[in-house]
Amino acid sequence: MRLLAALALVLAAPAALAQGYAGLGAEPQEGYAEVRPDREIRFPEDHGPHPEFRIEWWYVTANLEDAEGRAYGLQWTLFRSALRPASSTGGGGEGWASPQFWMAHAAVTSADQHLSAERFARGGIGQAGVAGVPFSAHLDDWRFESTTPAPDAPFAPLHLSARGEDFAYDLTLATDAPPVLQGEAGYSVKSDLGQASHYYSQPFFEAEGTLVIEGREREVRGRAWMDREWSTQPLAPGQSGWDWFALRFGDDTAVMLYRLRQDDGNHYLTGNWIGRDGRSESLGRNTVSMTPLERTDIDGRAVPTHWRIEIPSRDVTIETVPLNAQSWMDTSFEYWEGPIRFAGSHEGVGYLEMTGY
Amino acid sequence: MSRPASPAGVLRWTLATLLSHWWRSPIQLAALVVGLSVATALWSGVQALNAEARASYDRAAEAFGSRLPRLEPVGASRFDQSAYVALRRAGWPVTPVLEGTVSPDHAAPDPAPLRLIGIDPLTMPAGAGLVLDAPDAAEDDGENGDGFAEFILPPHRTYAAAETMRALGLGEGAVPRLADGPALPPLSLRPRLSPGLLVVDVGAAQTVLQAPDALSYLLIAPGGTAGLAAPKDVTDIPLRRSQPEGAGDLDRLTESFHMNLTAFGLLAFLVGLFIVNAAIGLAFEQRRTMFRTLRATGVSAGMLAGALGLEMVVLALGAGLLGLVGGYGVAAALLPDVAASLRGLYGADVPGSLGLRPGWWAAGLAMSVAGAMLAAGQSLWRAYTMPLLAAAGPQAWAEAQRRWLRRQGLVALGVALVALALPLTGLSGLMAGFGQLAGLLLAAALLLPVLLAGLLGAAERLAAPGLGRWFWADSRQQLPGLSLALMALLLALGVNIGVGTMVGSFRATFTHWLDDRLAAEVYFRAADTAEARRMTDWLEARDEVAAVLPNWRAEARLEGWPVDVYGFTDDPLYRTRWPLLAELPQVWDRIAAGEAALVSEQLAYRLDLAPGERIALPGAEGRLEAVVGGIYADYGNPKGQMRVDLALLLQHWPDVEQRAFGVRLDGAPAAPLVADMRETFGLGEDRLRDNETLKALSLRIFERTFVVTGALNTLTLGVAGIALLTSLVTLSGLRLPSLAPVWALGVTRRSLGLMELGKMLALALFTGLIAIPLGLGIAWMLVAVINVEAFGWRLPLTLFPLDWARLLALAVLTAGLAAALPLWRLARMAPARLVAVFASAR
Amino acid sequence: MSQLLSVETLSKSYPTPGGRLHVLGGVSFSLAPGRMLALTGESGSGKSTLLHLVGGLDRPDSGSVRLAGTEIAALPERARARLRRERIGIVFQQFNLVPSLSVADNLSLQARLAGRHDPAWEAELAERLGLGETLARYPEQLSGGQQQRLAIGRALAARPALLLADEPTGNLDEHTAGAVMALTRALVTETGAALLMVTHSMALAATLDERLHLSGGQLSHRAAAA
To answer: For the segment B118-158, what is each residue's pLDDT rounded down to a tens digit?
Structure first.
């Protein structure tokens, strides 16, 4: 089966450009839950799945170093997508008939390699799924779960593992910082038309574990960042993709920025200024400027891999450089995702994700 | 004004002059075109059949899961899907499959059961081999309800090829109802699926087959399972890993079948070329003057030969196109039978309708042109080297033919010797067999004119002087012109007798063998081990049942060949009825003791085994070693077969399916028992049969296998008839100088006509008589060489003299019909034309 | 006066079962444009062989044949064929018409091959040769005299420089033969061609400008027209 083609048909119909990246801008179908500003995010329940919403993801990225000081990036993502509103299947929806569709991506990036893998699963039979308390997310043998599986155990520390044909990793993520709510108290607006998602993050994980690339095992440690987002229609019609930054300014401060590109050129830029103590301040509409400095040719696509970022209100002017400009995710839905470092008014590392190129 | 002509101009007018001959001699043109197009039709028809079948083997080889290793349940046909989830969560790259058979309800045009497979498209690896391309990708955008989501979510979709949908009598979107159980999901066309296959989501399959949470097996995706926990450490459900049957097996097993077809196609093509050669040769002779005139008026020899070649190509392309249309017709007419025999013999699914491949058209035209060139080669060469000045007329040509005839005997002898020596050259196997057969045919054809000349000469000496002697002498005179056509007739008749004898012998042997082989009265196959146990208990409790005989099968490979190993128990049935071709003393005791094994004739032939030799093959556990105790015939089975004592089988294949049994009765009729079993256990037609039904089924498959051979045979005979007709028609003009003097002496045109007919019939009869020993030779080659090489079995040769008489009559009738048109023209010919013979005689 | 055709010491022999047969042994002669030459001799004297060598239909063992300065014997086959169709017309004893072509097509055959198809000239030829009514017929429907006139017309249609004729009237009765010859002479004169004609008829030979007699492969006698 041409899985790639088949999936593209479901999630990114031919008119993908008009409907946004991976169909995320498609008109919402009746029957899904709506994203509302007054919905309060609660822990630990909201670590778990929200099948009444159309899409959802658990997203972990990490900037790591081995004993010799070589830099690595790592990604672990689990996507959930409902092919139909859960309620519309009537009495069905159990077992194989579940409308929940799961997809996982994993990647490892070094200065000269970018290895990725993907997995798919049907909901309903146990091959993939997420539980909130105690937290556990898996697809096949790829796992992201609390290390102590007791109902009253804390969310962290967590265990994170995945493997592809030529790589594997196994990390432990620990933190004492509380999760931070993105946007306004977790309500993250994506367009002037009101498209939005529920969105929270954990930017302050300490990560350590092993990384195997083409049979060679390395001990690595560093920082990891988790994003959790669920929505029914996160992109507005006419939005073709996004450029998203997760930046760490020292130990206590992090910045999340994104630019949703509009076909009419009137891009939607915003972000949050985040403190380790859980404070999160929305930077407001268009108070940020993001300028591509250099593009990299990836199979004929001109992908902006070097950026200048300015946040005048915070006296931030930095330029970002990728660890590996070819961090292209060669998966069924293609995008760029990889570790970056930056210098200027601030220095540090982070992650960049660019879709719709 | 006196601009010299360009070479193209010269070529153009040369060609126009050459072609003018054909418009003035349309019958010759017809002979050429008919010969070439019939030859092309038969050849390309056979090629179309082969191509269609091969394409479907490729489809089958790529078919679902046929190349991937599997995890199968042990001792059951299905297992719970929790094992699948457990394996996935342990990192196993497996994809679930639920298989079953469904019977369409009675509204379907073809109620044959269909194979249903349930799959999970999300985990199915790229190499799994289901090509689920929608017929038109542009339409398949998920908007019109035929996308991936529609497949995996209720109400689902049923993917099927067009052939399958025709068998169901339903179109896209229709919901196929089944004889029992829930209906299938709505149909959706997937052209590249195998015919007879229905593909649904695994969840839908569980519903349709009423097997909730059940799976049949797991396919293991390519890419290694090293480092993963063993299945038994992951799940309590016992699963074993099995390698797929060799995907190329179908190609290998059917190879000989296609080779037979190809050989027949080639034979028909060659017979067609005889006609073409005759027509071209005659046209060459009749155009000798034209060639000389053209040369004298300034056409170079090269230009002339080039123009002749071009003329041949043009004619060949035209005739080839006609032939391809005919070939398509032949193939379309024969395909259902070919498909049926391939299914019956090899289990290969070939669609009943023909696809048109561009390569086939190109190859057919190329064959037509190549054949025409081959047939015209001699004439082209002679046109090129023809001395401009030699005053050679048709008479000289006939003289040359006669000289060639004398040499022909020697050539025939040479060809026969080469054919006989073929095995000595190291060329062996089926190719050598066909080589020998071809040599035999060629030698016989070449020898024919010599033999006929001898026969006619003898008749001439015996005949009374006068008209009687003239009759034979004139027949002999006609021989050179007719010999090619008569050769074609000889070949057609010889092959007919040969193949007829082979098929007849096979039928006689096969029928007798089936009686012995299907000695038990009832055969059944239980759903699983538990049901098998219930059924054997139930049967053993019945009075009329003398024995329940297990017939359990394991699959193995021996030196690359697939071999089925059967386990059976010692029973008087085998000791008294099982036919053996060769055996050791006390063979049954030795088998029962687990020392000896029976091997099928084809396996013995392939591995060169004789009774008393040791055989060893890898079992699931340890190597099975035994002495070859006996060899038995296993006609029609492309695989090798071996039979051992049940205990020995179970020792090496402890997990073998214990589901197939034969039932021996104590003389009671089988029908009541069968009815009772159906009633009690709900067994369908496919799992419970009495031996009479089985025999009828086997014979039906057998007969259809030879329908194609028979049809090609008949067509070849038809081609020979056309060869005769065209030869006679083209020669009839040349005959006038021979007939006119006799007419002038006072023999009426009517008598002349009858005598001409008589000559033709005598020639045909003689040819037919010579064809009988040739046919027996061919039959012997087929039975003793070709069959053994192709299938690995040998048959006792049976003779059918009545068939020969029928064929002789057919030959004479063919010749009579072929002679009818020229004779009709002779009888109606104005005396003036006969007189003209004298007027124009130089 | 320059010669159209000059033949120098031409020799030709053929292999036979009884050894080589010397047909021509050093024959020399020449022919000027517009002149008509009769070649006489017994059967087997080598007349036809000489004619064929001159027409480039065969190659000599030695000696030369020059047509308007071109050495025919030295030309490759293809060039000789071209010379034949453009410069030479040949009339055979057996007419050698193409049976499957109509009279009109036979008449224009060589002219077409030579790229000199001239309908007006061909129509005139047909008229003068008395074939005007027969153009749509086929050769087998013509009388012997008509067939020979057609053969002559075909040879002249391409306006050859040299017309070769091999016993052109051998198959015709005396009366017809005389008429055909008269017409041939007239046409040759008109077109300015030279004629080389093989005949065993002394009477016919006497009507031409020059005569050569072949005997035993040698030119034994040469006489100018009276």
So the answer is: 999 888 876 665 656 665 543 444 444 567 788 888 889 99
**Which residue of A6, A96, A140 is in closest CB contact with B89?**
A140
Q: Return d(Cα B801, Cα B781) in angstroms, integer.
A: 18
Does residue B139 sit at the A interface (CB-CB below 8 Å)? Answer: no
- Bond prior to A134 in cis (omega within 30° of 0): yes
Do A13 and B152 lie within an 8 Å CB cutoff? Answer: no
| B189 vs B337: CA distance, rounded Å | 26
Name the closest residue on chain A to residue B81, using Cα atoms: A125
Token output for A110: 């070094």
Structure-block tokens of residue B614: 């040791």
A84 touches chain B (CB under 8 A): yes
User: What does the alpha-carbon distance between residue B725 and residue B279 come to, in Å, rounded to a whole number?
Assistant: 11
Task: State the maximum Cα–Cα separation within chain B, in Å, rounded to a whole number.
Answer: 110
C114/B296 Cβ within 8 A: no
pTM: 0.58
Instruction: Please report how many Cα atoms fall inside a 13 Å half-sphere around the Cα of residue A146, on the Cβ side.
Output: 19
DSSP string, B302-339: HHHHHHHHHHHHHHHHHHHHHHHHHHHHHHHHHHHHHH
CA distance linking residue B571 with residue B577, whole number of Å: 10
Integer Rg of chain B from CA: 33
- Its ipTM equals 0.90
- B302 contacts in C (CB within 8 Å)? 77-78
Low-confidence ranges of chain C (pLDDT < 70): 1, 221-226
Do A and C touch (≥3 CB pairs < 8 Å)? no
Q: Does the structure show a pLDDT above 90 at B403? A: no
Helix ranges (H only) for B426-567 are 429-462, 467-517, 529-540
- pLDDT tens-digit readout, B542-584: 888 988 999 888 888 777 777 889 999 988 888 888 888 888 9
**Cis-peptide, bond into residue B562, ω within 30° of zero:** no
How far is the CA of B183 from the CAs of A89, A96, B147, B186, in angstroms?
19, 18, 20, 9
Question: Contact A237/A262 with Cβ under 8 angstroms?
Answer: no
Q: Which tokens belong to B505?
A: 């012998």
* Token duo for residue A100: 């929940």
Q: Contact A115/A127 with Cβ under 8 angstroms?
A: no
Backbone torsions φ then ψ of B77, nearest 5 degrees: -95, -15
Please give the structure tokens belonging to residue C111: 């002219």
Report the candidate in B752, B750, B759 with the shortest Cα–Cα distance to residue B482.
Answer: B759
Chain A segment 90-129 residues within 8 A of B by beta carbon are 92, 95-97, 99, 101, 120-122, 125-127
Q: Is residue A338 a contact partner of residue A306, using CB atoms and an 8 Å limit? A: no
Contacting chains of B (3 CB pairs or more, <8 Å) are A, C
**Longest Cα–Cα distance in chain A:** 58
Q: Say if B283 is an interface residue toward chain C (CB within 8 Å).
A: no
Helix%, strand%, coil% for chain A, nearest 5: 10, 55, 40
Per this entry, what is the length of chain C? 226
Residue with tokens 């990246």: A21
Residue B606 CA to residue B687 CA, distance in Å, equals 32
pLDDT of residue B56: 67
- Give the contacts of B406 (CB within 8 A, at least 6 positions apart): B450
- For residue C39, which amino acid is it? L
CB contact under 8 A, B300 and C81: yes
Res B393 pLDDT > 70: no
Q: What is the mean pLDDT of chain A?
A: 87
Q: Could you give the 3-state DSSP secondary structure of residue C99? A: coil
Q: What is the pLDDT of residues C62-109, one digit of tens each?
A: 899 999 888 988 888 888 888 888 889 888 877 778 888 889 988 988
Q: In sequence order, what are the beta bridge partners of B119? A: B97, B201
